[in-house]
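ok so i was messing around last nite and threw this chain in just to see what happens. nothing serious, just curious
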Amino acid sequence: MTIEEINQKVIEKSQLIDNVINEVGKVIVGQNYMIKRLFIGLLADGHILLEGVPGLAKTLAVSTLANTIHASFHRIQFTPDLLPADLIGTLIYNQKTTEFVPKKGPVFANFILADEINRAPAKVQSALLESMQERHVSIGDKTHLLPKPFLVMATQNPLEQEGTYPLPEAQVDRFMLKLLINYPNREEESNIMDRMVNAEDISVNAVLSTDKILELRELIKNIYMETKIKDYILDLVFATREPANFKNLAELDNLIECGSSPRASIYLAQAAKANAFLEHRGYVTPDDIKAIGKDILRHRIILTYEAEAEQITQEDIVNKLFDEIEVP
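result:
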């Protein structure tokens, strides 16, 4: 297909997502940043890690999204006593057939909300992250494929650290996006009160099928990306590994212990195409990289003790990269 044909197809098909966003907007007030990233994760086939205090509609957003897409949704509350079998399932004995049969766990759904993932021990975290990566689960001696699409949204509460098991950096890398969710503004919170206190239950319509989501993913793969845009992505990623090789970034050399993995380059390209699709374009611009770049890079940079002593955060590093790396 030519760029013109791709662009025309994107303009036509992206209206489907507009319909879903309108349905989600019936329930969720504000939080446009979170909702748009949910769609980017869904369309780019990537999982999402959210960090934010309780009560910011994280659970409601995912369950509402599932209700608008003819998809299954499971919420899993992670606790210190959770076992991997509670997540993926186990074998149970059938007395009639005298055989062990698999009993699938809650991970077998299109949308999974892993609430407070850092409250569960490492074995449970690993079971979920393996499912995210491999898209299948082994129960006994058989492998079971997970449904498509399969989107995990995991939440972390940044306020409470007692009784938690922080995710290892290598495992956090498997999330495409890490979002920092903030409070709504005063006007939005007033609307939330009016809608949730006075109104009756708000229902949403299922306006999209899972098959259509898979079809849209194939279209998004064909969205055009210039070589200059690819070079811009590589500059951003390599600047986290070798900052001394880039103008005005040499000071970061003593602040970054470990830079972004190749997943960062892959996810930047995939998410940029998904963002272009949501903007009704069949081609990627530098603005698409800027729009989603921080969400992809912020959890892929490990800081040195020197950076922590100077109270420099990953956010500071990422902001510096986007300020200094030349835009094509």
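not much to say yet. The longest strand covers residues 89-94.
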